[in-house]
Design a protein that fits this description.
Structural class of chain B: mainly beta
Largest interface: A-B, 24 and 25 residues
Order of helices and strands of chain B: EEEEEEEEEEEE
Number of strands of chain B: 12
Radius of gyration of chain B: 13 Å
Number of strands of chain A: 11
Shape of chain A: globular
Low-confidence stretches of chain B: none
Largest sheet of chain B: 6 strands, mixed
Oligomer: heterodimer
Mean pLDDT of chain A: 93
Number of helices of chain B: 0
Shape of chain B: globular
Radius of gyration of chain A: 14 Å
Number of helices of chain A: 0
Distance between the termini of chain A: 36 Å
Strand content of chain B: over 45%
């Protein structure tokens, strides 16, 4: 089954304790992205990756890191989490634009993070 | 920069009534437009998309949307609401060649029995 898989789905942590949210897709997509969802703000892009070893900042990158060492994986790293990073996080992927692809994103189930 | 505005963060309709969720975009060139739905504790699922092939787009679960360039709108409709339609709905926009999908702030749809 084609899917984007995120782990963990739920996490409660404390300020300053490094954590990683993993994301893996099995559709051989070049493009991957992380969003955070907050009430009243919709989805905001954190980072995206056009392909392996190519990453760039989205709209709200502060406090986050990413890496793209393999095509299928795109982990989100919070080096020193703070309470304002409490949010619902989504990983998404899609093929490269063109060749009939129109930018539709395929989403994971989400990871709900609480930072105390 | 691209932007999309969803009017009404909460919409309530009676079961069987018309559903109308509003979306306006700011792109100066014909964009790609999407509606996604998010059911409780789930990820986002594509409802439908506009890619310039036809202005009236039909999606899953009986939803449809009409692209109106003169009004820069892409409103989502369903003739008769069902209890299972209760969810949050997001409108999103991208330009051709733009790598980013920009989302609206979402509209939570409640169905009244």
């Amino acid at each position: 089954e084609a899917q984007v898989t995120q782990n963990p789905r739920y996490l409660i942590t404390v300020t300053g304790k490094k954590l990683t949210v993993t994301c893996s897709q099995n559709m051989n997509h070049e493009y991957m992205s992380w969003y955070r969802q907050d009430p009243g703000l919709g989805l905001r892009q954190i980072y995206y990756s056009m392909n392996v070893e190519v990453t760039d900042k989205g709209d709200v990158p502060e406090g986050y890191k990413v890496s793209r060492k393999e095509k299928r994986n795109f982990p989100l790293i919070l080096e020193s989490p703070s309470p304002n990073q409490t949010s619902l996080y989504f990983c998404a992927s899609r093929p490269t634009l063109g060749q009939g692809n129109t930018g539709e994103l395929f989403f994971g189930e989400g990871s709900r993070l609480t930072v105390l | 920069a691209q932007s999309v505005t969803q009017l009404g963060s909460h919409v309530s309709v009676s079961e069987g009534a018309l559903v109308l969720l509003r979306c306006n975009y700011s792109s100066s060139v014909p964009p790609y437009l999407f509606w996604y739905v998010q059911y409780p504790n789930q990820g986002l699922q594509l409802l439908l998309k506009y890619t310039s092939a036809a202005t009236l787009v039909k999606g899953i679960n009986g939803f449809e949307a009409e692209f109106k360039k003169s009004e820069t709108s892409f409103h989502l409709t369903k003739p008769s609401a069902h209890m299972s339609d209760a969810a949050e709905y997001f409108c999103a926009v991208s330009d051709f060649g733009n790598e980013k999908l920009t989302f609206g702030t979402g509209t939570r749809l409640t169905i009244i029995p």
